[in-house]
Structure formats: structure tokens, C-alpha cells
């Protein structure tokens, strides 16, 4: 019987043995057809799969020759089956391998896995199907075949195998032999060491076989691997399983494997909903919608590879509208979320980099900025990890090239990707098997139909004029919508009159581009619509193009135009009704890149340079003063530390309370970052002040990536203009960010430079702050005498200046050094004085810090109950403020207090929570502290192996940071019975 083997080396088998397929390229052609057996594969796709993105000139002829030879091979090999077991008929645009799926091991595997999901089958029957499917696996798919396409197939089917193995394990525990499960799962873990579903299955199996301690050890070593390699801890589902095992609760394995196309997301995962508003009056494109529907159906029926659809076509043809409309139609098919990202491929500015795009995508999935790897490829890997197994729709709009998109592609077949681009992105088709949909101009009947939907009965009454209008708009949906909106504002004019007016306008328009192509028609329609606007609205449309951010609200628009927010709100709505802007809730408006380019062109022609400059100045003033008002609400006690920004502008919103202030900052953070980047070029004073104003918000909110960017912009702006005070301030702020991230070399460099500048300027406040920060750094590094010296100098300056916040902060920091030195009475006295000052000032964050520090003293004094009370009060305040760094410190303190009180299980729980949060915000010192606490807690429980693992991890972090505790940790680890390894020492074993 003729059969195909795709698991392992690609082989063709008969009852007489293996058939010699021929050279490697022919084997690749057979594999490229067999993976999609029963479905047409275009010649272009086959060439991309076999030869890659740069095929030789003779690739098409070579493909035809290989197909001819394969036909003869299949005919000869299938002689025992009547010669018709398999064939490769020519299709309209490619070829198809016609064969029963059961003859191909890969498809047989898929069929058995799908049948095992039938809830009507008894458990033992499902188990036998999964056993049979796993037995088919004799090696990685397409072994020996090179190229990016083959690698993606291997990745996709490797994940399918993991899904099957995980659910086999659950059924085997219920209906089969439990003892065989852990061994089989461990074998798979050697191939997939970072698979959370696999480690969860192993933990359940070990628990079921009476090895709960080993299951907990698996979790500990797995989380360490994740932190080391991805900079992240386990997901919420695995953490929940871990907590259940700690409580010795029975964790039932899943009995029915869900379809891989719709895996449930863990309850705590972010479900992004980023689709823009659906297009009003969307019509036509029935064929293209049907193609997308078919791709969706294929992704459900054959979840073996990521389905990618590439929508390409001329500007204004409706690529984004089609993608967004279809995405809204099918959003229920993607319960884990809908991601949308404008890649700005053809915007006025540069295209979005893959690095920036991955940050946006990871942020939308709930990954905090500190957990985003610095390297683009690492970010791409983290993105693939985050979306693995999740049923997500990803719309990548306005791509410039396949190279821009490649790092943003998921690896999981549970995801579907829609890419829109003016380019045909051939690389996506050849390398990733993307299904290309080329959007042509609307057929004339559809163009007239769209006008009818938008304008109404006048189109049916004047069919000839409607046809002329459609032609004048080049049958482009964007131009048709703009023209239709103009027509609806003039109900008394006939369509014939309007088409005559447009024809005359086109004749008079000084077009930038020669010829009668669609872009010229679009510009003419834009101009026609623009000319109908009142002059003040025309001016607003032009000036809006100056905004550096992705969109604007009424307040930003008012600042650009110099009018009231109420007028700006009405103007934005009018421009949206004219289809010259697009609503982007809540209360914001964006614009198509063609319209933005047109508005930019208009502004350069009609607005004087000083008008454009004044508009940007008003916008930056608005952002600066509103940010200052928000910070005054959130951090009133530190107002004196921020630069003077002046009173709110007439364009600024009223921020009623802390919630409104925090919401405004969060909602406008991308615009503020863009404004700072733009201001660095031509408004340097705005850049330095905006970064300084936002310092505490970015720092306490854990926005380290944005903070590094914004303070770097500020530093460059200050240096360009010789602003020494601004330069020193930016250096201090950059140093604090690096201090939290554990980059101590950079911290020393920044603080030292800043201190020299402040001394040159005679700025005693700046000197005091920098001296205090240097003291904090030296305290962390164990240089206690130097730390105390710097803190004493800072304290003296703060008292001379009457800076009570600075005085209290310094007392707190000096108390921390006292604790390091064992001077507990002095530490308690300093923290108590700091607490009194903070309460007098109403500084809630400072009060929480002082309470936490007093609790630390109680722990060191062996008074755990008193410490627990203080920690709980501090934790409540930090949670009220949303300050996560403070929460980490308190959670670690609670763990230490519980261990001291003998509540070792509680200690493990608190340190574990602290470790998770410390990893999330990128705080390395507290990660080391959490590992140290877990090590001592597990030692007390009687688990020296886990104690040693956590202790060694803590030691590794302390060595990396150059901080204290290394000698104590080495001594403690030695007491456990095995001398610790120095993580920084070379491996001399080979």
C-alpha cells in the first residue's frame, strides 16, 4: 500500500519498501504538496517553499520538471493500488496532491487527534486514539529539508504534538498506567524546556503518583529557567497549579482535550480588543470577504500552521476598511482577543520599527515594559511565547515590507494574521504561505452601490451622473466616501451639478503628480472636499497634521488651532463627518496616512512658518501644563521638586481627582512620548521640562522603557542647547531608572556626572538629591561608610534648604544603612522621625515607606508580630497608590516575618508573590531577596534541594549586581552540604 511519511525524513513507501524519491529538491517539492494534501498550492508558493525568498531564474522550469518526475514515481509506486492511489493534477494557478489523507502519517496523526476530541467517545477510546497518534511520531517533520518554510512547519507540528501529549497524559492518569506518564513527559521536556502546558502536565502526573515534592521542585526549576531565558515568571495558570500543590489540593487533569483551534485563555490573561471602529456603510467586496471566511474555516479545520492573509492594493482602495470590517464580523471566532497595529509603512514619518511594534503588541497582551527583552529577536520570541495556544486575530495594518512584518508573526496555528500593505509583500507568500488578496478598484456597479449607500436615493435617480462621479473618484472607496459626504451636505444640488464642479476643480488643481492615476484622483477629491470647508476648519485640518502623536483629542486640537476645546470638538466632529478624520475612541481622532500627507502638503503651502511654530508651541505647552497639573494631584508633596510649568493653558482639561489625573496620563502617554521626541529636535526646553515633570509617574508606574526614552530625549535636548541644569536633572533621572534595573555601572556614571554639574552651578537642591541617590547605590553595594557619608551630606543640605521631603527620605535611607550595620535602635529612631514628617506633609507614599522600614527593624529585632502589623499597614497604602515597587518590598518583608514566626508555608507564599511582582517590574535586588527568603523557608521546611536552588539563584543575582550578601549566602549555602558554584566562574569541565 502506498504511503507518505513526513514525520522524520520525507519518504514514499510501498509494500515492497521505500521508494527513491530523488534529489533533495524533489523531496522538498513532495513535502510542500503533501503538507497541504487535497488543497491547491500555487506555483509561486511551491517555489518559495522549496527555494526560499530568492529563487533562481530557472526555478519555475525546475519545479515543472520535479512535478513531472513525481507523477511518474507516484504512478509506479501506486501500481499495487491500481495506479490511482496518488496523483498531482495541474490546477488553475498551481498543483494539488490528490491522495487519501490516511496515507500520510502527518494527516493520520491530525485525524486521530481530532477524533479524540469527540466528547461522545468514552475516555479509554480517546486514550487509545491519542496513544496511536503519538506512536506515529518518529522524528521531527520534514527532517533534512532546509529553509524557513520547513522550519515553520516543524514548529507548528511540534506544538500540535505537545497538545496531544498533554491531553494524553491527563487521560493516561485517569484510565491507563500512571507510572509511565512522568518518564514520557520528561523526554518531551528535553525538547521543549519552556513549555508551560508540558510542565503543568508533569506536575499533575508527579502529584498523582505521590511525588508532590518533586512536582514542586519541577515548578521551582522551571520558573528559574523562564526568568533566566525570557525574563518572566510562569503564567497565572501554572502559578495557580503551584499554589494548589502547596496546599496539597487534588488537581484534576483535563479529561477532554479541547480543539487546538480554540484553547481557553487563563482567566487572568489580558484579552485585547484593539480593533478600530467598523466602517459605516461598508459594501461590496463580497468575493474578498468570502476568501477571508474560507481562510478562517481552514484555520479551524486544519490548525497546523499560522494562517496569514496579505491584503494589498493601491492607496485608498480600502485595505484597512476590509480588514477591520471582516475582523468585526468574525470577532467571536477569536475569544482570546483582537490585536490591531498600524505599522505606519507609508506614513509621513518613518515606518514603525519591529522593535517598537513588538513593544506595542506585548504591552497590549499585558507584558510590563521591564519584562520586554532589549533585543528585537528576543522580543519576537517573547511575543510568540505569549500568543502560543491562544485564539487571537492579529491585524497588522499599513506594512511597508515583509521584513517589517516577519518578527511580528506568531508561531502558533491558533492565531490568524491579516496584513495590509500597498506592497504585494511577496516574501510573506513565498516564505510563510500567506494567502494574497489583491484589492483592485471597485467594479463600477459596486462603486455606484457604495455611493447609493452613503448618499441615498439621488444615486438611483441620476444613474449616469453617479457613474461619472464614481469614475472621477477612480472607484477608490476612500475618495468615494469623501465625495459622498460632500454630496450629503448639499442636498439641493444634483449629482450632475456636483460632477461638473468636480471636473472643473480637477482641471484647475495644481496636482503634485502627473498623469491620471488613482492618487491624482484622490488628491482632487480631497481638495474638492477641503475647499467646501469653512476657512477656520480648513486651517484646523492643516494644523492637525503637525501633531507628533498618533491621534488627538479636542484639547490637543484646540491647542494646535488656538481655539476653545468646545470649538475644537465641533470641528473634529465636522471633519470626521466629512471623512477627513476617523474617530478613535475614547474622544480621540486619527487620520488616514494619505489624508495626513495631504494636510501636511497643504500646511506647507498655506501656513506661514511662524504659524506652524506657534501651533506646536501651544501643543507642547498644553501637554506640559496638563501633565504638571496631573502630577500636582498625584504627588502634591513633591511639587517643589518639579520644574515650573506655569498655569494650565486655556486648552487644558479639568482634572477633578487622582483617578482623572492617572487616566489622563495613561491615555496620553504615547502622545507625551512622541511630543518629547519631537520637542528634543526643535523645542528642547519643552523636552527637558516634560521629562522632569513626568519622572515620578514613569518611575512609580514601572514604565521603564518609556522613562529611558524620555529622559534620553531630555538629555540630548539639554546638551544641544548647553542647558546644564537640564542635563544634570536628566542624568539623575536616567540613573534612578538604571538603579532599579540593576545597571549599576551606568548608575555610577550618571550620578557622578550630575553631581559635578550641580556643584558647578551651585545648585544645592540638585546636589542633595544626587548625594542621596549615590548613598542609596553605595548602600546596596555594601559600602556603608561611604553611603552614610553621602547621606549625611544630603541631610545637611536638605535641612539648610528647608526641604522636608528630602530630609525625610534621607532619614529613611540612613535608617536602611543602620539596619545593614546592626544599629537597630538608631534605625528605628530615624524611621520614626521620617514617618512623623511624612504624616505632617500628607505624603502617603513616604508614610508607607517609613512603615515598611520600621517593620524591617522589628524583623531584625526578632519581633515578628509587631512587624506583621506594620507591613500590613504599609501594604494597604502602597496598594492604594498603585506603587508596585513598594508592594514588592513589603511582600518580601512579610515573608521574612512569617518565617521568623514559624509560619513557613506563609513565608513561601509571600516570597513567591514578591518574586512574581519583582520579575514583572524588573527589580533585580528584590528578586534576589525573594530567592534568599525562599531558600531559607525551604530549609526550615526540610527541603534542602529547593533551598539550595533558590540560594544559588540569589547568589547569582547579587554577584551580577555587585551588591551585599554574597559572603553570607556562600556561607549559608555551604552549610547545606554542597559548596556553592560561583556563577561567574568559567566552566573547566571540558
Can you offer a commentary on this structure?
The chain is built from 44 helices and 15 strands. The chain has 990 residues and is mostly helical. It has 7 domains: 101 residues, Arc Repressor Mutant, subunit A (Orthogonal Bundle); 142 residues, Alpha Horseshoe (Serine Threonine Protein Phosphatase 5, Tetratricopeptide repeat); 141 residues, Rossmann fold, CATH 3.40.50; 88 residues; 73 residues, Orthogonal Bundle (Arc Repressor Mutant, subunit A), CATH 1.10.10; 148 residues, Serine Threonine Protein Phosphatase 5, Tetratricopeptide repeat, CATH 1.25.40; 105 residues, Serine Threonine Protein Phosphatase 5, Tetratricopeptide repeat. This is DNA-binding transcriptional activator of the SARP family. It comes from Nonomuraea jiangxiensis.
Task: Indicate the topology.
Blueprint: E1 3-5, E2 11-14, E3 17-19, H1 24-34, E4 41-42, H2 43-51, H3 59-77, E5 86-87, E6 94-95, E7 98-99, H4 105-115, H5 123-136, H6 148-175, H7 180-191, H8 196-208, H9 212-230, H10 236-246, H11 286-301, E8 307-313, H12 319-329, E9 338-342, H13 354-364, H14 376-387, E10 393-399, H15 402-405, E11 416-421, H16 426-432, E12 435-439, H17 444-455, H18 457-461, H19 463-472, H20 477-488, H21 495-508, H22 518-531, H23 535-544, E13 552-553, H24 554-561, H25 565-577, E14 582-584, E15 588-590, H26 593-606, H27 609-634, H28 658-682, H29 684-693, H30 695-700, H31 704-721, H32 724-741, H33 744-761, H34 764-780, H35 784-801, H36 804-821, H37 824-841, H38 844-860, H39 864-881, H40 884-900, H41 904-921, H42 924-941, H43 944-961, H44 966-975
Parallel strand pairs: 8-11, 8-12, 9-10, 10-11
Antiparallel strand pairs: 1-2, 2-3, 4-6, 5-7, 13-15, 14-15
Amino acid at each position: 500500500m502506498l504511503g507518505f511519511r513526513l514525520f522524520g525524513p520525507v519518504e514514499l513507501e510501498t509494500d515492497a519498501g521505500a521508494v527513491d524519491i530523488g534529489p533533495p529538491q524533489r523531496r522538498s517539492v513532495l513535502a510542500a504538496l503533501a503538507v497541504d494534501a487535497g488543497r491547491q498550492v500555487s506555483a509561486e508558493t511551491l517555489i518559495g517553499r522549496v527555494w526560499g525568498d530568492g529563487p533562481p531564474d530557472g526555478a519555475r522550469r525546475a519545479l515543472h520538471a520535479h512535478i513531472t518526475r513525481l507523477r511518474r514515481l507516484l504512478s509506479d509506486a501506486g501500481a499495487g493500488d491500481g495506479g490511482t492511489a496518488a496523483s498531482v493534477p495541474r490546477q488553475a494557478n498551481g498543483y494539488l496532491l490528490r491522495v487519501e489523507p490516511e496515507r500520510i502519517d502527518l494527516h493520520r496523526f491530525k485525524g486521530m487527534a481530532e477524533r479524540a476530541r469527540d466528547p461522545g467517545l468514552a475516555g479509554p477510546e480517546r486514550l487509545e486514539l491519542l496513544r496511536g497518534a503519538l506512536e506515529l511520531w518518529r522524528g521531527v517533520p520534514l527532517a533534512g529539508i532546509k529553509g524557513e518554510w520547513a522550519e515553520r512547519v516543524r514548529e507548528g507540528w511540534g506544538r500540535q504534538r505537545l497538545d496531544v501529549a498533554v491531553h494524553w497524559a491527563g487521560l493516561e492518569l485517569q484510565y491507563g498506567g500512571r507510572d509511565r506518564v512522568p518518564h514520557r513527559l520528561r523526554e518531551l521536556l528535553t525538547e521543549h524546556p519552556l513549555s508551560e502546558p508540558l510542565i503543568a502536565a508533569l506536575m499533575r502526573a508527579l502529584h498523582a503518583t505521590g511525588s508532590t515534592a518533586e512536582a514542586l521542585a519541577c515548578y521551582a526549576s522551571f520558573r528559574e529557567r523562564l526568568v533566566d531565558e525570557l525574563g518572566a515568571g510562569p503564567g497565572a495558570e501554572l502559578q495557580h497549579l503551584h499554589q494548589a500543590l502547596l496546599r496539597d489540593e487534588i488537581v484534576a487533569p483535563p479529561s477532554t482535550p479541547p480543539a487546538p483551534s480554540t484553547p481557553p485563555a487563563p482567566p487572568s490573561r489580558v484579552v485585547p480588543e484593539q480593533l478600530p471602529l467598523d466602517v459605516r456603510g461598508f459594501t461590496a467586496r463580497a468575493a474578498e470577504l468570502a476568501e477571508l471566511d474560507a481562510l478562517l474555516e481552514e484555520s479551524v479545520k486544519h490548525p497546523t500552521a499560522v494562517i496569514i492573509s496579505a491584503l494589498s492594493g493601491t492607496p485608498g482602495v480600502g485595505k484597512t476598511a476590509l480588514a477591520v470590517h471582516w475582523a468585526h464580523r468574525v470577532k467571536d471566532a477569536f475569544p482570546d482577543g483582537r490585536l490591531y497595529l498600524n505599522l505606519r509603512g507609508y506614513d509621513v514619518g518613518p515606518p514603525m520599527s519591529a522593535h517598537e511594534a513588538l513593544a506595542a503588541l506585548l504591552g497590549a497582551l499585558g507584558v510590563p515594559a521591564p519584562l520586554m527583552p532589549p533585543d528585537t529577536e528576543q522580543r519576537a520570541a517573547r511575543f510568540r511565547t505569549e500568543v502560543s495556544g491562544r485564539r487571537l486575530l492579529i491585524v497588522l495594518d499599513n506594512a511597508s515590507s515583509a521584513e517589517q512584518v516577519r518578527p511580528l508573526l506568531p508561531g502558533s496555528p491558533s492565531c490568524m494574521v491579516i496584513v495590509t500593505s500597498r506592497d504585494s509583500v511577496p516574501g510573506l507568500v513565498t516564505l510563510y504561505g500567506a494567502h494574497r488578496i489583491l484589492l483592485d478598484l471597485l467594479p463600477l456597479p459596486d462603486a455606484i452601490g457604495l455611493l447609493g449607500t452613503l448618499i441615498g436615493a439621488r444615486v438611483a435617480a441620476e444613474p449616469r451622473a453617479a457613474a461619472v462621479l464614481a469614475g472621477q473618484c477612480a472607484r477608490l472607496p476612500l475618495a468615494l466616501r469623501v465625495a459622498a459626504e460632500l454630496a450629503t451636505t448639499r442636498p439641493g444640488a444634483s449629482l450632475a451639478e456636483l460632477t461638473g464642479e468636480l471636473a472643473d476643480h480637477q482641471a484647475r488643481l495644481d496636482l503634485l503628480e502627473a498623469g491620471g492615476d488613482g492618487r491624482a484622483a484622490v488628491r482632487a477629491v480631497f481638495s474638492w472636499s477641503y475647499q467646501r470647508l469653512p476657512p477656520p476648519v480648513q486651517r484646523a485640518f492643516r494644523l492637525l497634521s503637525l501633531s507628533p502623536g498618533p491621534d488627538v483629542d479636542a484639547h490637543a486640537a484646540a491647542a494646535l488651532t488656538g481655539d476653545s476645546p468646545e470649538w475644537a470638538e465641533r470641528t473634529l466632529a465636522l471633519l470626521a463627518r466629512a471623512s477627513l478624520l476617523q474617530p478613535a475612541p475614547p474622544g480621540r481622532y486619527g487620520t488616514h496616512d494619505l489624508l495626513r500627507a495631504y494636510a501636511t502638503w497643504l500646511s506647507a503651502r498655506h501656513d506661514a512658518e511662524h504659524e506652524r511654530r506657534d501651533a506646536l508651541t501651544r501643543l507642547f505647552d498644553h501637554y506640559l501644563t496638563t501633565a504638571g497639573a496631573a502630577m500636582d494631584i498625584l504627588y502634591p508633596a513633591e511639587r517643589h521638586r518639579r520644574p515650573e510649568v506655569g498655569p494650565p493653558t486655556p486648552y487644558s482639561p479639568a482634572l477633578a481627582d487622582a483617578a482623572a489625573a492617572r487616566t489622563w496620563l495613561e491615555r496620553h502617554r504615547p502622545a507625551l512620548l512622541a511630543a518629547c521626541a519631537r520637542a528634543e529636535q526643535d523645542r528642547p526646553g519643552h523636552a527637558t521640562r516634560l521629562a522632569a515633570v513626568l519622572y515620578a509617574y514613569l518611575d512609580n508606574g514601572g514604565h521603564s522603557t518609556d522613562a529611558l526614552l524620555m529622559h534620553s530625549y531630555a538629555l540630548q535636548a539639554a546638551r544641544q542647547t548647553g542647558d546644564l541644569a537640564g542635563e544634570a536633572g536628566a542624568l539623575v533621572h536616567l540613573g534612578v531608572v538604571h538603579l532599579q534595573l540593576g545597571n549599576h555601572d551606568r548608575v555610577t556614571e550618571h550620578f557622578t556626572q550630575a553631581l559635578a554639574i550641580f556643584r558647578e552651578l551651585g545648585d544645592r537642591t540638585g546636589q542633595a538629591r544626587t548625594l542621596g541617590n549615590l548613598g542609596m547605590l553605595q548602600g546596596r553595594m555594601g559600602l556603608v561608610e561611604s553611603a552614610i557619608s553621602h547621606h549625611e551630606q544630603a541631610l545637611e543640605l536638605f535641612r539648610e534648604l528647608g526641604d522636608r521631603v528630602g530630609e525625610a527620605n534621607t532619614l529613611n535611607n540612613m535608617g536602611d544603612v543602620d539596619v545593614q550595620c546592626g544599629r537597630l535602635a538608631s534605625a528605628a529612631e530615624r524611621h520614626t522621625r521620617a514617618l512623623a514628617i511624612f504624616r505632617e506633609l500628607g505624603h502617603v507614599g513616604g508614610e508607607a515607606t517609613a512603615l515598611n522600614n520600621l517593620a524591617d527593624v522589628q524583623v531584625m529585632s526578632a519581633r515578628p508580630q509587631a512587624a506583621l502589623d506594620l507591613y500590613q499597614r504599609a501594604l494597604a497604602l502602597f496598594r492604594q497608590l498603585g506603587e508596585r515597587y513598594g508592594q514588592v518590598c513589603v511582600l518580601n518583608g512579610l515573608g521574612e516575618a512569617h518565617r521568623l514566626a514559624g509560619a513557613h508555608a506563609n513565608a513561601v507564599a509571600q516570597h513567591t508573590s514578591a518574586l512574581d511582582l519583582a520579575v514583572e517590574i524588573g527589580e533585580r535586588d528584590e528578586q534576589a531577596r525573594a530567592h534568599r527568603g525562599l531558600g531559607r523557608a525551604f530549609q526550615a521546611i526540610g527541603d534542602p534541594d529547593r533551598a539550595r536552588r533558590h540560594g544559588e539563584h540569589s547568589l547569582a543575582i547579587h554577584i551580577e549586581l555587585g551588591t551585599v550578601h554574597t559572603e553570607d549566602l556562600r556561607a549559608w549555602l555551604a552549610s547545606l552540604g554542597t559548596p556553592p558554584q560561583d556563577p561567574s566562574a568559567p566552566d573547566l569541565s571540558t
